[in-house]
Design goal:
Layout lengths: L3 H12 L2 H15 L6 H15 L9 H12 L5 H13 L5 H5 L6 H14 L3 H16 L7 H15 L6 H16 L9 E2 L8 E2 L28 H19 L7 H13 L30 H19 L7 H24 L4 H15 L6 H14 L8 H15 L3 H13 L1 H7 L7 H10 L1 H15 L5 H9 L1 H16 L5 H6 L2 H11 L4 H7 L13 H7 L7 H24 L2 H14 L9 H19 L3 H4 L1 H8 L3 H5 L1 H14 L10 H18 L13 H17 L4 H9 L1 H5 L2 H6 L2 H18 L2 H8 L20 H10 L9
Antiparallel strand pairs: 1-2
Helix pairs in contact: 1-3, 2-3, 3-5, 4-5, 5-7, 7-9, 8-9, 9-11, 10-11, 10-13, 11-14, 13-14, 14-16, 15-16, 16-17, 16-18, 17-20, 18-21, 20-21, 20-23, 21-28, 22-28, 22-29, 23-25, 23-28, 28-30, 30-34, 34-36, 35-36, 36-37, 36-40, 36-41, 37-40, 41-42
Length: 826
């Protein structure tokens, strides 16, 4: 959220009129033509930058001002602040002609970088960028005296090939590859020259170059990398760092061998002939280089792309070796972690392009995993290692089960509160979902752990989990996963308590009380042995210990004081979304047994939900929708679970706490409790359902003087009436009973409590529906056709409302019986 003052400025920028903007641009144009740039000019440019940036659409600026801004942008003599503002304004405004910007590229590195940023932003196709590309390649080939141009070249080149990978020809790719090899492998070993004061009476003098050191302070004995430490760096050392930062994207963009079949054959021949030769001047002895095969000695004979691959591989091995050193500074420790992640990822790419590198890489990767395993501070580094094992363990015949067991069991359980790890971990699962399902046995079993990431970071990861959830559904754990999704807010509360409990000792009651009385009570319960089993289950690391627990209501009571926690509330908001994804996935492949189990869960859990505002209502809406879908896919469910459904439907208390779901249960009873759907549907079964629903309708529609207004909707009454009529047509001995029941509906609808609660349209709807049904039941055979069509005749349906309305056939018959009746839309 922006501050109030910032919001006001942005609003003003968005609402500025076109005429006012043109006048403002004219004033800026005049200011830019003055010899001396004042603070007013900078202030005006900043305001213009805000105006063009505050709207989604591009503002069109006067052409003369745009040309002047381009002149400022390309002028190396202008202050850098003006160039930055000009670049930003041009990028956000309507696209100018990028050809005019590229017509005469500046040789000044700073100016060139600002011009390039505009060109890459405004370019519409590859041709617009081509002049910039030619200038970049020319600067790579040249050796300017100041040496500055190249340092800005690589970031621009990296962004260019990301947007237009086909812009470089094979020869140009080879040219850049050769340059990258030189920068990556042959940087100088001395620190850059630095100027120091010679004292009060003497001028500055140049210090002699000092040797570079490792992160632990030892003098570097091998080639330069980004983990080499110095007070200042030479230009080629800076280029080394830039090269390493873009080598991954370069390899991914140009991932072919870069050689023809003839070249590949020649390469194999030269590798055999020259394997005994020494490498070039940069090859030195080290523990890393001892792992390199003899083929690396002929690296100068390799094609440029393959030589880059070879040198990048050696560079990554050296970085992994350097990461084992104990850094003297914390910042260097963080840099070591970043280098491990990048190095393993690059080695993974190289091994994917050339499987022969797999056998050279695995000893290094296995040793690295052995060193990092168990150290939670390196949890993010385990993900690229796991990716490497997933991609190449079969090639090298290496068992990877222990790696993934450790990854899925420990990282989510202990690092769920690390947002970056959570995002990268879920992305790893998304990227490899199909492979993980087939090859990693404990992937689907680990969903209780993976959902901890979502419970803690719900708003940031919901989109990823919507995509990931289908891959976690397995036949043997699908029901447990459904319970776990419903318990996700409980998991968020339990994780919160776990974090707080780890921070505060039990003896420190003062600190507990500072969290609030409610949280302190929950913390107390979290530490009590009596409830330990409940929390151990909700925080379990993997599936298989049971679908749910018997004392779930007790857990809800313990966590009641956490129900208003922002984290718990946000987590509850994502549950309906996940339930939609879950049911849509499961119903496509569920068998009869699973459908029966899901129906039981719907009946059981609609009254066993964590009491959070609007949470129960939203979940029950999802339950209602998918109850219909389940019964439509497998109508025998009604008979299979008749006892549980009858028990639920016969309780009027369910109406007041879960009316929407209860209404849908009544509807599916009337729709699918028929011998046409299941031959096991006997008259006795139909009668038992009829009597239960009849008793419910009688109870909720009794007219008493002291009765309070009904707290249920008229829709429930019409659905109950229609369902009783449907059941009566399937056992015609029940028709007199339902007719008597329906005849009382006018009295109910016209009673004072009902008139005070329902609108005139609602009461007329109840009376009209009862009247229609009574007339229809006078013709039992017609009623059976209208109210209980055959299973094969329900597609297409002519319902307006598939839950409560009557088919068109009923309207036609009722119209014949009472031509002058008025029918309200339903």
């Amino acid at each position: 959220m922006y501050a109030a003052a910032t919001e006001s400025l942005i609003k003003q920028a968005r609402e500025i009129k076109e005429e006012e903007l043109q006048r403002f641009c004219g004033r800026i144009f005049k200011q830019l033509h003055t010899k001396d740039v004042s603070g007013d000019t900078v202030d005006s440019l900043q305001r213009l930058n805000l105006i063009v940036s505050a709207t989604k659409y591009a503002r069109e600026l006067p052409s003369d001002l745009v040309m002047k801004l381009q002149t400022v942008l390309r002028s190396s003599s202008c202050p850098e602040q003006l160039q930055v503002l000009s670049s930003s304004i041009i990028r956000e405004s309507s696209p100018p002609s990028v050809h005019s910007l590229c017509s005469d590229p500046s040789h000044d590195s700073r100016t060139f970088s600002y011009v390039a940023s505009v060109v890459l932003t405004q370019a519409g196709n590859k041709e617009d960028v081509m002049p910039l590309c030619h200038h970049l390649l020319k600067s790579l080939e040249s050796r300017l005296s100041d040496g500055q141009i190249s340092r800005h070249t690589l970031p621009i080149l990296s962004k260019m090939i990301t947007a237009y990978p086909e812009i470089l020809t094979d020869d140009q790719v080879n040219l850049v590859s050769r340059k990258l090899v030189d920068w990556l492998r042959y940087a100088s070993m001395q620190q850059g020259a630095s100027m120091s004061s010679g004292g009060f009476f003497s001028g500055p003098r140049t210090r002699q170059p000092a040797p570079l050191t490792e992160v632990d302070g030892v003098v570097v004995g091998n080639f330069f990398t980004v983990l080499c430490v110095g007070q200042s760096y030479t230009e080629d050392q800076w280029m080394n760092m830039y090269t390493f930062s873009m080598i991954k994207s370069w390899l991914l963009t140009y991932d072919t061998d870069g050689t023809t079949n003839t070249e590949s054959a020649l390469l194999k021949k030269t590798q055999g002939i020259h394997s005994q030769h020494q490498d070039d001047r940069s090859e030195v002895d080290s523990s890393v280089m001892s792992m390199v095969s003899a083929t690396s000695s002929s690296s100068r004979l390799l094609p440029p792309k393959e030589r880059l691959r070879e040198k990048a591989f050696e560079y990554c091995q050296r970085l992994i070796e350097q990461s084992d050193r104990k850094a003297l500074k914390k910042t260097d420790t963080e840099l070591q972690k970043a280098c491990i992640i990048e190095s393993v990822s690059i080695m993974d790419i190289i091994c994917g392009e050339d499987p022969s590198y797999v056998y050279r890489a695995f000893p290094c990767i296995k040793a690295l995993y052995g060193r990092l395993n168990g150290d939670l501070t390196y949890a993010r580094a385990l993900l690229p290692i796991a990716q490497f094992y997933l991609n190449h363990s079969e090639t090298a015949a290496v068992d990877s089960e222990a790696v993934f067991c450790q990854l899925f069991s420990h990282c989510p359980a202990e690092q769920f509160n690390e947002p970056m790890l959570a995002f990268e971990f879920v992305q790893f699962c998304l990227l490899n979902a199909s492979v993980l399902q087939d090859r990693v046995a404990n992937y689907r079993q680990s969903f209780p752990n993976l959902l901890k990431f979502l419970a803690w970071n719900s708003s940031g990861l919901i989109e990823e989990f919507v995509e990931l959830l289908p891959s976690l559904i397995a036949p043997d754990t699908a029901i447990e996963l459904l319970h776990t999704i419903l318990d996700l807010p409980c998991l968020a509360a339990a994780l919160d308590l776990q974090q707080r409990s780890a921070c505060y000792h039990a003896s420190d009651r003062t600190t507990w009380d500072q969290q609030g009385a409610k949280v302190a009570a929950c913390l107390d319960a979290f530490r009590q042995p009596l409830y330990r089993g409940l929390f151990l289950y909700i925080l379990r690391p993997e599936a298989g210990t049971g679908d749910t627990i018997d004392r779930l209501k007790m857990l809800h009571e313990i966590l009641a004081d956490m129900s208003e926690s922002p984290r718990v509330v946000r987590c509850a908001q994502v549950v309906p979304v996940l339930l939609q994804v879950y049911f849509n996935t499961v119903t496509q492949k569920a068998d009869e047994k699973m459908m029966n189990q899901m129906l039981l869960v719907l009946l059981e859990r609609n009254s066993l939900l964590y009491n959070i505002k609007t949470f129960n209502v939203e979940v029950q809406k999802v339950f209602s929708t998918h109850l219909q879908a389940l019964c439509r896919l497998h109508p025998p469910l009604i008979v299979d679970q008749s006892r549980e459904i009858l028990e639920f439907a016969s309780s009027p208390a369910n109406i007041y706490s879960k009316e929407d779901f209860y209404t849908h249960v009544v509807w599916v009873i009337g729709e699918y409790l028929s011998v046409s759907y299941d031959p096991r549907c006997t008259v006795e079964l139909i009668t038992s359902f009829f009597e239960s629903l009849e008793a419910v309708l009688f109870e909720i529609t009794q007219v008493r003087q002291s009765a309070s207004p009904p707290s249920f909707s008229p829709r429930l009454v019409t659905v109950l009436m229609t369902t009783l009529a449907k059941l009566a047509t399937r056992s015609q001995d029940l028709i007199p009973r339902v007719s008597l029941c329906l005849s009382k509906m006018r009295t109910f609808a016209r009673s004072a409590p009902v008139m005070a609660c329902y609108s005139e349209e609602d009461t007329e709807e109840i009376i009209t529906r009862a009247h229609e049904l009574i007339n229809l039941l006078k013709l039992p055979n017609v009623a059976q056709f209208v109210l209980a069509p055959s299973a094969g005749g329900d597609s297409p349906r002519w319902h307006r409302d598939t839950n409560a309305s009557l088919p068109q056939g009923m309207r036609a018959v009722s119209g014949l019986l009472h031509r002058h009746s008025s029918f309200l839309p339903t």
